[in-house]
Amino acid sequence: MISPFNTITDCLDQSEGENDRACVNFCDCIHAQGKSRDPYLDQFNENK
Question: Which of 12, 11, 2 is nearest to 42 (CA)?
Fold first, then answer.
């Protein structure tokens, strides 16, 4: 399971292989765009 963590750096440290793009998108939505976690968590799970 992915977690937003407190910083984008910590969030991005979770990326693994084929899930890199989904992880980057999730972390960007939470930390750079300031969006709510739940819709992007669903999106991450669909794209991994």
Answer: 2
Domains of the chain by residue range = 8-47
HEC letters along the chain: CCCCCCCHHHHHCCCCHHHHHHHHHHHHHHHHCCCCHHHHHHHHHHHC
Neighbours of 21 (CB within 10 A): 11
For the beta carbon of residue 23, count every other beta carbon within 10 angstroms.
20
- Write out pLDDT tens, residues 1-48: 788 899 999 999 988 876 788 899 999 999 999 988 888 888 888 887
